[in-house]
Write a structure and sequence with these properties.
about 425 residues; 15 strands; disordered C terminus; five-stranded mixed beta sheet; single chain; alpha/beta
């Protein structure tokens, strides 16, 4: 696999397509996620048969498409099946969370080849975290017998607001030390591939829309409940980033002006009252006051509690843990109800570490949304758990990176720092 990959990748430049028809062909083949017959492509796209045939031939020559057998006969000559071969190049997909890193290698068609993850603390700062990310990518490349130059795009999800034009984090509340850190530069010395950065919840929404429970659902809200709370919004099949890139920043909606101080500097944000740190804090208070003997025993033994401890206590029907989790679910559901009234989505997907505590949270979110949203908006509104779970982020960053390198309207790779990125250096 490696030799072939190297040969192709060296001839590719970003963006990988040359005109609108090539972009449409690649988008169609990617969307199908399986080989598509040339006859079906001609049927689906508006360009002429001759133009599509010519551009398919060009894409095959560039190594972005390959013939993968023949379609079933529909009378007459059997049409060749077209797919995106692994040799078209690899995507390094990175999902940096507040408390974990997930890294994956995928094909340009977003097929997950390998992934690995580990606990990590984003507060350690960008240099150690990104160094670790690069080591994890190298390990996966070795495992796949591939080289750095086979990587044609890098996608990175981060748990903070990302300014779209520059790809820079801007005053991220839970990421001290990352404000305007040039993440793209961190890869520039070792990879010639362009780097695309987005908020972690946006990419999770993309992942779930691409290959999870929301596949084929074109209006959805993905809510991540973890150390922070955020949402990714897909409208008409496209991610809605907003003008600056911070649409969906759901966790900093005020639910109680007299509530606790939030990491963003305001008081009573949803995140400060319902995310993992708030849940743990309340559980520790319960334990100290002797309201939950199991949590008290755990706290005495370890000196602190974790979200996992609270989740396990809730699963064992501990009254305190269940009450805290239900309260969190109710606050999230009430806030989400407003978003439902504004956006009228056709599905809500819940993901992130806190969502794994079990049914109690989801039940409370559902009941609050159904109670407080307009009846017409909730008439047919499934509220479901993420299907991709811990790989939603890497699948989503892969989808983002693939769309960008195959799009003529790609976001610019400019930024104020000195790094030369987005320009292939001949590896
Ligand atoms: Zn806040």
């Amino acid at each position: 696999m490696s030799d072939e990959l190297v040969g192709k990748a060296e001839h590719q430049r970003y963006p990988l397509v040359e005109d609108k028809v090539q972009a449409e062909i690649m988008a169609h083949v990617r969307a199908e996620a399986r080989p598509v017959s040339k006859a079906r492509l001609i049927e689906a796209l508006s360009s002429s048969r001759g133009k599509i045939s010519a551009e398919v031939a060009r894409l095959i020559e560039k190594g972005l498409l390959a013939e993968e057998g023949l379609a079933e006969s529909e009378g007459g000559r059997r049409s060749p099946l077209l797919g995106i071969p692994p040799s078209a190049g690899l995507i390094a997909a990175v999902d940096i969370g507040a408390t974990s890193i997930e890294v994956a290698l995928t094909t340009l068609g977003n097929e997950l080849l390998a992934h690995q993850g580990e606990p990590s603390d984003v507060r350690d700062g960008p240099v150690p975290i990104l160094n670790r990310v690069k080591i994890l990518i190298s390990e996966l490349l070795d495992e796949q017998a591939a080289k750095r130059r086979d990587v044609i795009a890098i996608g990175v999800g981060v748990p903070g607001p990302v300014e779209q034009a520059s790809g820079l984090l801007t005053v991220p509340p839970i990421m001290p030390g990352w404000d305007r850190f040039p993440i793209r530069d961190a890869f520039a010395g070792e990879y010639a591939a362009p780097v695309f950065i987005d908020n972690d919840v946006n990419v999770m929404a993309l992942g779930e829309h691409w290959g999870g429970v929301a596949k084929g659902v074109d209006d959805l809200i993905f809510v991540k409940i973890g150390t922070g709370i955020g949402s990714g919004i897909i409208i008409d099949g496209r991610l809605h980033r907003g003008t600056q890139g911070c649409a969906g920043d759901f966790g900093h909606i005020c639910v109680d002006p007299d509530g606790p101080l939030c990491s963003c500097g305001n008081s009573g944000c949803l995140e400060a009252m319902a995310a993992a740190p708030a849940i743990v804090l309340q559980a520790e208070r319960c334990a100290r006051e002797g309201d939950s003997p199991p949590l008290m025993a755990l706290l005495q033994e370890k000196g602190e509690l974790t979200m996992k401890d609270v989740g396990e206590a809730a699963r064992r029907s501990d009254y305190c843990a269940l009450t805290i989790i239900r309260r969190s679910g109710r606050l999230i559901g009430q806030t989400l109800a407003s978003a439902v009234n504004v956006l009228n989505p056709s599905m809500i997907v819940i993901g992130g570490g806190v969502s794994r505590v079990g049914h109690a949270l989801l039940a409370e979110v559902r009941s609050a949304v159904y109670q407080r949203s307009l009846p017409l908006a909730t008439r047919n509104l499934p509220i479901v758990m993420s299907e991709l779970d811990d790989v939603a982020g890497v699948v989503g960053t892969s989808v983002m990176a693939a769309s960008e390198v195959l799009s003529l309207a790609s976001r610019k790779q400019t930024q104020p720092s000195a790094g030369v990125v987005g320009v292939r250096r001949g590896a």
